[in-house]
Amino acid sequence: MAKMNVDFEVCKGCALCTTVCPKKIVVISHERLNPKGYYTAECIDDDACIACAMCAMMCPDCAITITPDGGDK
Q1: Residue 14 pLDDT class (50, 70, 90 cuts)
Q2: What is the pTM of this model?
Q3: How many C-beta atoms lie closer than 10 Å to residue 10's C-beta?
Q4: How far apart are CA 26 and CA 16, in angstroms?
Q5: What is the per-residue burial (b if ≥16 Cβ within 10 Å, else e) of 17-47?
Q6: 3-state SS track over the chain
Q7: CA-to-CA distance for 67 and 46, rounded, in angstroms?
Q8: Closest Cα partner for 41 from 25, 29, 55, 24?
Q9: Dihedrals φ, ψ of 9, to 5°?
Q10: Cα–Cα distance between 19 and 34 in angstroms, integer?
Q11: CB–CB of 69/56 below 8 Å?
């Protein structure tokens, strides 16, 4: 199972990743702020992720990585 990993400390919540996800499962979470004061991106359905890496390619801060097998990055 593929897994999108967001570096909580690096993400600035620009939402560019949310615009390119073909499954529309990447959203900006409004539950907590990171230490820099940003709401960050998250995948709302890991099972639906197809590991296309469009979100990671779009991220200007390289805060997103994709692990095709769901393991740690």
Answers
A1: very high
A2: 0.87
A3: 15
A4: 10
A5: bbebbeeebbbebeeeebeeeebbbbbeeee
A6: CCEEEECCCCCCCCCHHHHHCCCCCEEEEEEEECCCCCEEEEECCHHHCCCCCHHHHHCCCCCEEEECCCCCC
A7: 11
A8: 29
A9: -75, -25
A10: 21
A11: no
Q: Is the pLDDT of residue 70 over 80?
A: no
Angle, CA of 47, 53 and 58, to the nearest 5° = 130
Tokens of 26: 């990447």
* Separation CA 63–CA 59 (nearest Å): 7
Amino acid at 12: K
Residue-wise pLDDT for 16-60, tens only, equals 999 999 999 999 999 999 999 999 999 999 999 999 999 999 999
Residue 17 tokens read as 């990743």
- pLDDT the model gives residue 72: 54
